[in-house]
Write a structure and sequence with these properties.
Blueprint: H1 11-25, H2 31-47, H3 53-68, E1 72-76, H4 78-94, E2 98-101, H5 108-120, E3 126-127, E4 133-134, E5 144-145, E6 155-159, H6 163-171, E7 175-179, H7 186-190, E8 193-195, H8 199-213, H9 218-226, H10 230-248
Parallel strand pairs: 1-2, 1-6, 2-3, 6-7, 7-8
Antiparallel strand pairs: 4-5
Helix pairs in contact: 1-2, 1-4, 3-8, 3-9, 4-5, 4-8
The structure holds ligand PTJ.
Ligand PTJ binds near residues 37, 77, 180, 182 and 199.
């Protein structure tokens, strides 16, 4: 890795970029994943690089939905494994939920590498390799998933999803929780619950909520999920960003 002086004002962000570019050289992250990361950085800048109140509430609702689920699955791709693979394993264990690798740019080689990477960090069972089911309406490889994993899930957490797959999963009747820093993306607008936060903060914060809510009455958790208005939250995020920008100039 390139030497980055700790005194650099953007030290953390530069370290994350180094991590992503190394993960690309290792074959975990697809090269276009770096572009997606840059877009994420830009939106993170706009919200102030911290978990905003609307995201914290969405993380609470996401935790409630995951705790109420019969068959929850966390679907991960290259960027997510590179940035927060360990956090995803920890969250999956705490719910408990299944972990599945689903790729936009799917090759056997990347599937193997990503599954191995998660296993190296302690994941016991990672699905996705079989690809014995297909999400209806998605002809491309990104429609492939495991019958016992994403295909049969009732609630799917998809950090960094693409809009088409998010819609297709919803068409299957699933509750989709997306983590996406871009509140304008199709994914953000399509998901049942959108967390407008960086996966590097969001996944561990969802787990904090899981721990806090674990013993709450299931009916109350279901009420929290039922009363969630995703469109209203997205409007609040957009006015938060406008006000923040106006206050800076
Ligand atoms: O590993 P693969 O083959 O599945 O490919 C993954 C990528 C990311 C390349 C693929 O899913 C893709 O092209 O994604 P998009 O459509 O560019 O969407 C990425 C979205 O994630 C954008 O809306 C970004 O703003 C957002 N994003 C990027 N980094 C983060 C993020 N959201 C939360 N946290 C981040 N760190």
């Amino acid at each position: 890795m390139e030497e980055i002086p700790k005194s650099h004002p953007r030290y953390l962000s530069l370290m994350v970029r180094e991590k992503m570019s190394q993960a690309m050289r290792d074959g975990l992250v697809h090269e276009t994943g770096l572009i997606a990361h840059g877009r994420g950085e830009a939106f993170d800048y706009l919200i102030g690089e911290e978990t905003i109140p609307m995201a914290d509430v969405a993380e609470k609702v996401a935790a409630s939905a995951l705790l109420c689920a019969e068959n929850p699955v966390i679907s991960v791709n290259g960027n997510v494994v590179a940035l927060v693979g360990e956090d995803c394993i920890s969250l999956a264990n705490s719910i408990p939920a299944k972990l599945e690798v689903n790729l936009f740019h799917r090759t056997d080689r990347r599937m193997d590498k990503l599954i191995k990477e998660l296993e190296k960090h302690g994941a016991e069972k990672v699905s996705g390799k079989k690809g014995d089911a297909r999400i209806p309406g998605l002809n491309h490889d990104r429609g492939l998933c495991d019958k016992e994993g994403v295909f049969s899930a009732d609630v799917v957490l998809v950090p960094l999803e693409d809009g088409d797959r998010c819609q297709a999963l919803k068409n299957m009747g699933k509750k989709v929780i997306a983590i996406d820093l871009n509140p304008l993306s199709r994914t953000a607008r399509t998901a049942s619950i959108t967390v407008v936060d960086n996966v590097m903060r969001a996944v561990s914060n969802i787990e904090n909520w899981v721990r806090r809510l674990r013993n709450m009455d299931k009916k109350r958790l279901e009420d929290v999920v039922q009363s969630w208005d995703n469109d209203e939250m997205l409007e609040d995020v957009s006015s938060f960003i406008s006000k923040r920008l106006n206050s800076l100039f």
